[in-house]
What does this fold into?
Amino acid sequence: MRSFEDYCWRHLLSEEMATIYAAYHRERRVEPRSAVLIVHPADSFTPTIGDWVPAAEHIVAEARTLGLPVLHSILPGELATRRLAPRPSDHVISRHADSAFFFCDLEAALTRLNVDGLIVAGGPTSGALRATAIEAKSYGYHAAIAEEATADEAALLHKMAMFDLAHKYADVMAVDELIALLRHAIAMKVA
It folds into this structure.
């Protein structure tokens, strides 16, 4: 696993900031009873950083192989990201605000599915994805985010949001790290 600060924000850290935020470093993990939540951006979303869809496709495929639930948070009147369109077995949550939890039944769906963790992908990183990860923590769900499965319209906002998420609200890692931790967590649960 890469070091805690070895992600998209690393070049933004001064030596002083690295010292201050070292207190937030922790072992990253993925819960064995996780669900994947795709936070679909608005149709008008044009990312300047991150082609998040291939990484999200990889995570969704792995989740389906492992029998984990897949949920989609979509704005009313908007379409799901084409290559990640929901399947009949997936759960679709209508998102009325940035957070996929706000004014909708996401928390009730997660309770029914008996999950205790979320793997969150989508965008924009500095908007809906960040708001959803913060609310996930507030509701008691452990959130994990694959860096490559996120995108934003502004590089600086993306990096700042990922930094903030990693240090306070969610475990940020590379997609391969996330999948390896997920497989390990499920294997340990079964053993």
